[in-house]
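INTERNAL AUDIT FORM
Audit reference: QA-55
Scope: verify that the stored structure record matches its stored sequence.
Auditor: D.O.
Record contents follow.
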Amino acid sequence: MNLETMTGMVLSAMPIGEYDKRVVILTKEAGKISAFARGARRPNSALLAACQPFAFGEFQLYRGRDSYTASAADISNYFSGLRENLEGAYYGFYFCEFADYLTGENIEGAEILKLLYQSLRALSKGTIDFLLVRYIFELRMIALNGQAPQVFGCACCGEKEGLEWFDCKRGGLLCRECIEGMQGKKRASAGLIYTMQFILATPLEKLYTFAVNRQVLEELGELMKEYQEYYIGHKFKSLEILEMFQGAR
């Protein structure tokens, strides 16, 4: 077997047998992969810390027929600050599960990995509202999955003026001329439209550099819930746990 070096982040880990672990890693080079880490649950294992969710760095891997075997890792960021903030950790687990769901093996993973890394950094810094981090992550992830809403022109006719409505089924903003007789459309404020445009057009490294008022945050949350249900249609266990935690506070 050939030894390969891949840059990636651990999305999830589960125990196998008495001392081993199976980890799912999102890599820049090969998309999402599964790897066995033999002895990773032993207290003196060099892979003990590297096989935890959020661990980011370079992984030394042997490629097998159906999976990989991890032999070593050079972790550059454990995002240890998230483990000291329970709510932040729950958001992190949700982001990892979301990335896991939308990625596959041998699928280009560099942009999703970069988004996930920047999103966990934003959670760790805690300088902007966690809800805003969530909605930014969701919208950009959906865009990377090829399902971005049309927010720079009317989804029906392409008109760039008079965009005041949003419709999930039609995939984006609508102009005044195209809304007549349409059901399900929702009013979109100028602040909401600008926020969505910024999220979809800004380089990933500068994505988490702004804040919005409460009204825009609530509008964005309502829109993302509906849009995600329509285009993703998957219930995330970690999101249910996060929302239970928030409801119990």
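Auditor finding: record pair retrieved intact. Residues 81-149+182-248 form a domain with the de novo design (two linked rop proteins) fold (CATH 1.20.1440).
Action required: none
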